[in-house]
Automatic annotation (TrEMBL):
UniProt record similarity statement: Belongs to the plant acyltransferase family.
InterPro entries: CAT-like_dom_sf (IPR023213), Plant_acyltransferase (IPR050898)
Protein name per UniProt: Benzyl alcohol O-benzoyltransferase
UniProt keywords, alphabetically: Transferase
Domain of life: Eukaryota
Molecular function terms, GO-annotated: transferase activity
Protein source organism: Phaseolus vulgaris
Record bears the keyword Transferase: yes
Amino acid sequence: MTEKDPVEVIRQALSQTLVFYYPFAGRLREGPQRKLMVDCTGEGAMFMEGDADVTLAEFGDSLQPPFPCFDELLYDVPGSQQITDTPLLLVTRLKCGGFILVVRFNHTMFDGFGYQQFINAWAEIARGVTKPSIAPVWAMQIEADEDVRMMCIVNARGRFNPPLPDGYYGNAFAYLAAVTSAGKLCRNPFGYAVELINKVKGEMKEEYLQSVADLMVMKGRSLLFTTVRSCIVSYLARVNLRAVDFGWGKAVYGGVAQAGAGSFPGISYFCSAKNGKGEEGIIFSIFLPAEAMERFAKEFNHMLCNQNQPQSTL
């Protein structure tokens, strides 16, 4: 594949992949009561190409957020951020023969695992197969819907009976919130917060998900989670995008480019990564004000030091 132009290979593969994942070639529309619907128009996706006069090696040994020249490598097409606009795909060739693939999508279309399934199908077709190894399934009836909140995005795929069919790539997750007061959070040890989170995660069963779906139907798009004094964490380390191979080998990094989502900076992500020594690890992207970041780093390092101290028993 090294002698081929990655832009053309990926562009052609995308056009073939959208035949199977046809909703992504359509457009989101607003219906009654602001309900979002997919209009399968077949218009396709916005595809852009670029060239960067750098090599992959020039980015350094460890590829992880924050990326150097981030703003220069991404082109923010004017007017493309609205919820009903087209998905945006950008391939940038590097001087060494590698490339950077950027995908902007609307989260109402799929979740992290659905995204991985779509990307894998796209990569399979780029390598020469005629159809995805997992047949895509689109329509499903169940969708996921002075205190502080730690909200976790929990995968719901294994929590139904019968389970969701293989190949389902729509949204199947729910936001769970561990709610407490700022005072209780400060007065109690770290384990207090962990217990709160474990408790709400244990409550997410099929009945809970059905209840959330029913509430979303009743409330429509007026049902929004609060971002005030809220922190959201999404664990994407199991969404193995580094294993995706378009024919040039596996990716050296596969995950989010930065923390936050749109205008809300309070979303953090756990992504798998490998450092310059080849050691596997987890990257945790987080946005905080400068003063809060210094305090966070201090507290986090203090916690790690305590964990590494030998424990004595009296």
